[in-house]
Amino acid sequence: MPILENVNSYQNNVLTENLDIEIENGIISSIKPSVSSKQDSKNLIVPGFIDLQIYGAGGKLFSAEPSLASLAIIEDDLLQKGTTGFLICLATNTEQVFNECIKTVKAHLPSAKNCLGLHLEGPFLNPKRLGAHVPEFVRKATLDEIKALLDFGDGAIKMMTIAPEIQDDDVIQYLLDHNVVVSLGHSNATFDEATAAYNKGIQTTTHLFNAMSPIHHREPGIPTAVFNHDKAMASIIVDNQHVSFEVVRFSQKLLKERLFLITDAVTECATGPYQHRKVGDKYVMPDGTLSGSSLTMLKSVKNCIEHCDIDALDAIKMATEYPAKLIGADKSLGQIAVGMEANLLVLDEKLNLTDVMFKGNTISN
């Protein structure tokens, strides 16, 4: 039985020192005061990170190389960086690419490590708020198309970003009825339209402030609708490129447990419709349009703490507990508690990653 001896972790929202965490069959079986005579640890044990929107890692952009081999490389790279659960994201693309990506994830999930399924960001978006998405593939959904898509996905599609102002209510309701997390994004919805969408059951918002109607003092837009709602969540990219650190700061103060981190990370790619080129700390398309980030989840957490005046516990929850809750995995993922999967990260005093444990096994670099 593996035991993490004499470690520190957050328990009941309080930093608790000198604990022994026992693990049995990949599950945390007990957490109790340490009886070890070892020197007190200065390391912090936190849950493994959960990223609900990432396009690739390890040099592999999934949509450009939708193979089992590339997905395995993405999984291993993310595990070594502390992401123990993720949704691989697919941007607006051709039907052929969508089908190939869905087919690959379906085949992979029975033996998957940290891949939890697919997040489809498009193609049912508003052409007025495309960001880096390819306009010729964007369209309004039909109910028959959604039914066929979910049938083909066979449970692999866990999340979908749509622009609700251009979709029929029966499309949105069908997604919700079939346990797909629906996210409002790439949308030009008014405040009233966005509020109505959240009231109908849309749970969250894709990369807050990016590719959406903005806040204006006479046209409050989507961000204000999120802030004013009592349930709607939102993801945010904390790289100071997509969103200013100061805007992240006030957004977290307003949203609290309703705001969570994503990387929206991509990799260099010179083929297909999404040719990402790294410029400094960001990625751009050939025409200079800002595309995905170069973040890791750990860097996102550090940015929250160091640049956005967000408490360390809150920043960690934004990368663990809150996204797990959104996708309904909070009974097994995202926390350090008895009965949870032993997906654990060891961070040093400066919050640098020193070790990763996945389902009770230490991951070697």
TrEMBL record:
Substrate binds at A132, N210, A211, R218, H242, L290, S291, G292. Residues 45-362 form the Amidohydrolase-related domain. GO terms for biological process: N-acetylglucosamine catabolic process. InterPro entries: Amidohydro-rel (IPR006680), GlcNAc_6-P_deAcase (IPR003764), Metal-dep_hydrolase_composite (IPR011059), Metal_Hydrolase (IPR032466). The active site is at D264. GO terms for molecular function: metal ion binding; N-acetylglucosamine-6-phosphate deacetylase activity. Zn(2+) binds at E121, H186, H207. Binds 1 divalent metal cation per subunit. The keyword Nucleus does not apply. Keywords: Carbohydrate metabolism, Hydrolase, Metal-binding. It comes from the Bacteria. Its cofactor is a divalent metal cation. Pfam families: Amidohydro_1 (PF01979). Belongs to the metallo-dependent hydrolases superfamily. NagA family. This is N-acetylglucosamine-6-phosphate deacetylase. It comes from Pedobacter yonginense. The lineage of its organism: Bacteria, Pseudomonadati, Bacteroidota, Sphingobacteriia, Sphingobacteriales.
